[in-house]
Amino acid sequence: MPDPVRPIPKPASAEKLARVLSRRILDRYETLPEHERLAAVTAVQDTFRAAGGLEAGRLLAADLNPERLAVELQSPSAGLAERALALYGELLRLCCAHLVDQLTADPSFLARAAVEQTRRSGALLWREAEGGPAGALAFEQRYADFVAATHSRMELYGVTLGDRHRTEWPLETAYLSLAVTGEQNRYEPHPEGIADPTPTKAEQALAGSDRLVLRGQAGSGKSTLLQWLALNAARQSFGPELADWNRCVPFVLRLRAFSGPDGLPMPQDFLSAAGVPLRAPDGWIEELLSAGRALVLVDGVDEVSQRLRSRVENWLRSLVTAFPKARYVVTTRPAAVPEGWLAAQGFTARTLLPMERDDIRAFVRHWHEAARSECRSDGERELLDRYELSLDEAVSTRRDFARLATNPLMCALLCALNRDRRMHLPRARKELYDAALDMLLVRRDTEREITSVEGMRMSREEQGALLQRLAYWLIRNEQAEATRQEVIGLLDEWLTVMPQVRAQGDSEQVFAHLLNRSGLLREPVPGSVDFVHRTFQDYLGAKAAVEARDFGVLVRNAHDDQWDDVVRMAVGHARVEERGRLLRQLLRRADKVPRHRERLVLLAAASLEHAPELDPAVRGEVEQRAGELMPPSTYKQAEALARVGELVCELLPGPEGLTGREAAAVVRTARLIRGDAALRVISRFRADRRGAVRGELDAAWAAFDTQTYFEAVLEETSGAGHVLNVRAAEELALVPRLPLLDGLNLIGDHGLPPEALSHANLTFLGLSRNEVVSDLLPLRGVPRLRELSIDHCPSVSDLRPLSGLPLTRIYLTGFPDGFSLAPLADLPELRHLAFNFPAAESSLAELPFAPRLTSVAFFHRACGMRLTELEALGSLTWLTLNEERQWRDFLSAGVFSPLESLSILDVPHLDLEDLVPHQNLNSIYLRKITQMEHIAALEECPKLRSVTFSECGPLDLTPLASLDDVEIELYSCEQVIGTDLFSRERLIIN
Questions:
Q1: Torsion angle of C-alpha atoms 315, 321, 322, 325, degrees rounded to 10
Q2: CB atoms within 10 A of CB 57
Q3: Is omega for the bond preceding 783 within 30 degrees of 0, making it cis?
Q4: 195 and 231 in contact (C-beta within 8 Å)?
C-alpha cells in the first residue's frame, strides 16, 4: 500500500521563482512601460520590507493560504497605474506562494504546525461553546456595514423646519471639502528659505501623513471630516490619492464620551466605548492595529477638560508606541493644545481654514439643493431659487455677512434664517444666534401648527431657561455630554421653581419634549445627551451665567480655552454696566497672572464685537491694551488677533519698521478678518517684495472679491521676481493684465491654459494638483521658461517632452514610485533638482547629469536614493538629505564642494562636529533630530548666519548665544533651554 503521507517537498529554488516572475512579466505585461514594471516590483519589495519577519506563526495565522497572506500584506503605493497595480498583485501572490512552500519544507515546521493545530482545535471548541463570531473576516464585513450605515448621513442644519426625521441627509450630498494649511512642523527647506505650504484640500493633506492633528474652530467641520473618513474607509471608496486607506478599518472615538472615571479606552474596548453593539473576535482590533490596517479617528481633544488633556496625550503616545503602523487622525480646537503637540510622535498639524468665497457659494448651493428635494410644489422650489440667489449675492457684497459665513455651521444658520425670514437677515453674530433659537424653540412648531406632541406646551422662555441651566451645568462640570438619567434628574430639581411646567408632566416628559421638539438636544448614542453643537451650549450657558451674575466665575475661568466663547457671549448678554465691569476684571486678571496676560487681553478685545453699548472709557482701555500686543510675529498670534475682529485693523502697523515675518503675520491677520478695513491694511503691503509677505498677499486673494483685490493689491505690483498662486478660473483670466509677471503657480485642474503658455515673460511655472495636464510638449512654446514645478499631476507620465529646454531648476513631487529621472539628462542647463518620491534610479551615480548640479534636495519619500559618488558634485552649494543612510553617505564623501546651505531631515542622532569641515556653510536646517551632540561646534563655522531647528529636542541653545551674527529659528521644538539669552531679533519661536 502506498504511503498516504505526502513527502516533505524540497526547498523551492529562488532561481526558479525568478524565472517564473520574469516570464510572467514578459508574457502578460510586455506592453507595460518599463518604469511602471519597475515600480510594481519595487512596491512588492516595499511590502515585504514593511511586513517585517514572516515566520511560521504568521503563515499559520493565514492558514498557509498564499492568497490570504497576499491580501493581508497588500499595501500598494498610491501612485501605481491600473495595470502596474495588477502586476503588483500578481507578483505578490506568486511570492507568497513561494514563501509558503519554502517555510513548510523546513524540517522544524512539522512540530510547529502540530502545536498550532492543537491550539486551534481548542480555540475552535471554545468558540463553539461560547457562541463566538464565525471568523474575523466575516466580522470585519459586519462591522464595516454598521459603520457605513451609522455614518452615511449627516445633519444639515435648518434644511427642514418640520419634523426631525428629515434633519439628516446623505453625507455624499451634504459634505463639503474644505481647505487646510500646513503648520510649522511641515515647513520645508528650499534655496530661498522656509516655505509656507500651499493650502490644499483636507483629503489631499491626509495622503501625505499617517498621523494628523486637525485643528479648527467651533463649527469648522472637524467632526464631519472624521465622519467622511470613517464612511469611506468602511465602504473602501477612497479615491486614488487615498487608495491605500481602503485597507483600513475605522474606529471613531469621541473624547467627550470618556470624561468620566472609567478613563480612555484600550483597543479591546474601542467598539463598546464608541457605542457599537457588536462583539469583536478576541485580538481582532489589536491585529488590525499591529498590521497597520486600523484608522483611529479621535474627535474633540478640546471637549475634555484641561486637567484631562495630559491623559489624552499620554494615551495617544502609548497607542502610537504600541501600534506604530496604524493611522491616526485627531481633531481639536487650536487653543486647546500647544504648538508642536504630539510632533515628537510624528504627528503633522493642519488647520482648517475659514471658508473662502467659492466654499461659501458651494455650501449655499448644497444646502438649497437639499431643501429643494423636500419641496412639494414648483412654487416652493421657485421661492428657494430666489432665496439662494439673494443669499449668494448677500455674502458676496455685504461685509457683515461675509464675516459671519466663515464655517459650515454659520453658513447653515444663514441659509436657514434667510429662508425662515424671507431674506431679512440679522447682521450681528449674537442676533443670528437669537434668531436661530427663536426659530427652533417657537416658530418652527407654531407656524406648522404642531402643538402638544409630547403632551407639553412650553413657551420660548420656559424652554430657554431649562436649556440654559443644562448648558451652564455642563460647562461648569467640564462636560460635553451627560447621561440621560443625569439630565432627567437635573430637570426634576429645576422644575420645583416652574410649577406651571410640572403641572403638564414630569421631568421625563419635559426631557422628551426638549429632545424631540427644541432642535437643540440630541442623543449621539443611546443614553447620552448633548447639544447639537457646542456653539449653542456656549451661547445658552453664557446667558445663564449672566443671569446668575457669575461674573467672578467667568473671569476665573477665562484663561481656559473651553470658556472662550462663553465669556465673549456673556459680554453680549450682559447689561451695559455689567459689560464694563466684566471687561475691566479680565484686564486686572491679565495683570495679576502674567502667563495668561496676552490671552486675557485678546479675549477682552474679541468680546468688544458683542458689545453694541459700552462705556467709551472701557472700550478705549481694552483697545489700548490690545494695541500693546502689536505687531504679531507668528501665525498663531495672527489667528488670535483675527478673532478680535475688525477693531484690530485700526491697530495693525506697517509695513514700515516690520521684519518680514511680522509683516507676513499682519497680512495674515487682515486676511482672516476680511472686509473693507482689512483690505485697506493689506493694500499697504502691496509693494513689499519679501517672500513671506508675497506669499500671504497671494493667499489673501481668495478671501476677497477677485476683481477688487486684484486691482487694489496685485495689479500694479506683481512683476519680476514674483510667483503668483492662481486657484480659480476668474483669477486666471486676470493674468494677462500682469505683463511683467514672471512666475505663475497654477493650483487645480487648469491643464496648460493659454494664459500661461502665451505669457511672454514667464520664467517660472508651477503645476499643482492638476489631473488634467498630461502632455508637457506645449511648454516648448514658452520661450523664457527656466524653472518648472510639477506637484501631484497624476496624468504626467513622461518627462521626455522637456528634452532640450533651457530649464535650470525643476521640482518634482507626487509622482508614482519607480518614475525615472533619466530624461532630465537631456536638460543641458539643469542646475537644481528637488524631488519627493522613490525614483527608478537607486543611487546618485545612476544620474549622469548629477555632477553639473549646484543644488539638490531629497525630500521624505526620496530617502531611499543612495548618495554614492556625491563627491563628484564639485559645484554643489545647496543640499537637502534625508534619513540615516544618506547622512552616512554624506559623511563618507568628505569635503567635496563649497557647500553653503545644508538641510538634514529625519536623522535621529547627529554630531554637529561633523559639519565643521564645511567652512562655507551659512545656513543649516535640522528637522526631527532627537539627539544632538556638540552644538557648540557651530561656533567654528565662520560664515554661519542662520540655524533652523524643526521638531528637534531636547535642545540647549546656550552655546549659540554668543554668535551675534547667527539667527535661530525654532519650529515645534520641545524641551528647549537657553532661549532667554537671545534677543527678539535673533530668536524666532513658532
A1: 120
A2: 11
A3: no
A4: no
Give the number of other CB atoms < 10 A from CB of residue 700: 22
Q: Do the beta carbons of residue 888 and residue 865 sit within 8 Å?
A: no
User: Within 10 A of 601 (CB to CB), how many other CB atoms are there?
Assistant: 22
What DSSP string runs through 621-636? HHHHHHHTTPSP-SHH
Q: Is residue 893 a contact partner of residue 871, using CB atoms and an 8 Å limit?
A: yes
329 close to 295: Cβ distance less than 8 angstroms: yes
Structure-block grid coordinates of residue 172:
455624499
Whether the pLDDT of residue 423 is over 80: the answer is no
- Residue 666 pLDDT greater than 90, yes or no: yes
Residue 246 CA to residue 234 CA, distance in Å, equals: 8
Distance CA 47, CA 817 (A): 13
Name the 3-class secondary structure at 187.
Answer: coil
The radius of gyration of the chain's CA atoms, rounded to the nearest angstrom, is 31
Residue among 696, 705, 735, 699 at smallest CA distance from 718: 735
Residue 237: count other Cβ atoms within 10 Å of its Cβ.
Answer: 13
- Model confidence over 496-542: pLDDT tens digits? 999 998 888 899 989 988 887 777 888 877 788 888 778 889 999 99
Describe the strand order of the beta sheet including 482-483 as a list of residue ranges.
482-483, 528-531, 521-522
C-alpha distances out from residue 112 to 61, 108, 283, 839, Å: 12, 7, 21, 41
**Quick one: the chain helix, strand, coil %, rounded to 5?**
50, 15, 35
Q: How far apart are CA 724 and CA 747, in angstroms?
A: 10
- What average pLDDT does the segment 844-872 reach? 92
Q: What are phi and psi of 89, to 5 degrees?
A: -60, -40
Crossing angle (nearest 10°) for helices 460-476 and 507-517: 100
Decide if 455 contacts 436 (C-beta within 8 A). Answer: no
**Which residues sit opposite 836 in a β-bridge?**
813
Strands 521-522 and 528-531: antiparallel
Phi and psi torsions of 354, nearest 5°? -60, 150
Output the CA–CA distances (angstroms, integers) from residue 761 to 739, 741, 755, 933, in the order listed.
Answer: 7, 7, 12, 48
Q: What is the DSSP letter of 714?
A: I
Q: Residue 671 is placed in which grid cell?
A: 486676511
Contact 153, 168 (CB under 8 A): yes
Residue 397 has pLDDT above 70, yes or no: no
Euclidean distance between the first and the last CA atom of the chain, given in angstroms as a whole number: 81
Q: Beta partners for 902?
A: 879, 924
| Backbone dihedral region for residue 197 (phi beyond 0: left; psi -120 to 50: alpha; all else: beta) | beta
Dist. CA 420–CA 446, nearest whole Å = 13
Q: Which helix (H) or strand (E) holds 169?
A: strand 168-170
402-435: b or e for each residue (b if 16 or more CB lie within 10 Å)?
A: bbbbbbbbbbbbbbbbbbbeeeebbeebbebbeb
At 784, is the pLDDT very low, low, confident or very high (cuts 50, 70, 90)? very high
Which three cell numbers mark 801?
A: 517632452
Sequence-separated (6 or more) residues with CB below 8 Å from residue 549: 578
CB under 8 Å to 574, separation ≥6 — which residues? 546, 551, 582
Distance CA 435, CA 683 (A): 36
Q: Which three cell numbers stand for residue 661?
A: 515675518
Q: From the DSSP assignment, how many helices (H) and strands (E) are in the chain?
A: 37, 31
Secondary structure (H, E, C), 209-258: CCEEEEECCCCCCHHHHHHHHHHHHHHCCCCHHHHHHHHCEEEEEEHHHH
> Is it the case that residue 918 has pLDDT exceeding 70?
yes
Cα 589 versus chain centre, distance = 35
23: confidence class by pLDDT, cuts 50, 70, 90 = low
CA nearest 98: which of 141, 48, 27?
Answer: 48
- Residue 785 three-state SS: coil
**Paired residues of 927 in beta bridges:** 905, 950
DSSP 577: H
